[in-house]
Amino acid sequence: AQTVTQSQPEMSVQEAETVTLSCTYDTSESDYYLFWYKQPPSRQMILVIRQEAYKQQNATENRFSVNFQKAAKSFSLKISDSQLGDAAMYFCADFGNEKLTFGTGTRLTIIP
Amino acid sequence: GAVVSQHPSWVICKSGTSVKIECRSLDFQATTMFWYRQFPKQSLMLMATSNEGSKATYEQGVEKDKFLINHASLTLSTLTVTSAHPEDSSFYICSAEGQWDYGYTFGSGTRLTVV
Fold this sequence. Notes:
heterodimer; A: about 110 residues; mainly beta; four-stranded antiparallel sheet; 12 strands; B: about 120 residues; seven-stranded mixed sheet; 11 strands; about 0% helix; about 55% strand
């Protein structure tokens, strides 16, 4: 069974600063994908970034980047130049065994 | 980009009645759709996986007779909550896997309140 752990229920960051959200996972799959999703107050799930496990290079999408440590089964999300619109719940997810397993989420607050 | 439409966005129903929620992929064919349930301030819990033309696969602990899933076409999956009770009140979200991409697109969710 897959498990995804997000140990930070809440985080806050000053606007324009950088914040890192932590995620660890446990999977027996050899081929899998990792995702970060954002859920703003509208509750629409929005894909932030994804990482293929076979790729060593960390994925980046504009201000969002990941630190993927495969051996440690760690997949953290770094948000640079934080903006007010980044305030949301962030969920880490692991795709394996043909389904997505989500972590418990981290609520990110942006301080103006 | 891939869009998934979910309706209704919210519904209130009386205890004992049934409610149907629709999930449509608008610009792609979804071979597989997923149904999740999310309680307030909690994560998404997978309820079932539906594949076009076959029976849905339910997660452990999910009552298949209560949560009926139909995936009759490559663009439509429905979730019917039968004989709804107040404890079924929750936020239900669908997602779809496209054939051409290894990503998942989510619907906007349905807030179900059973009174």
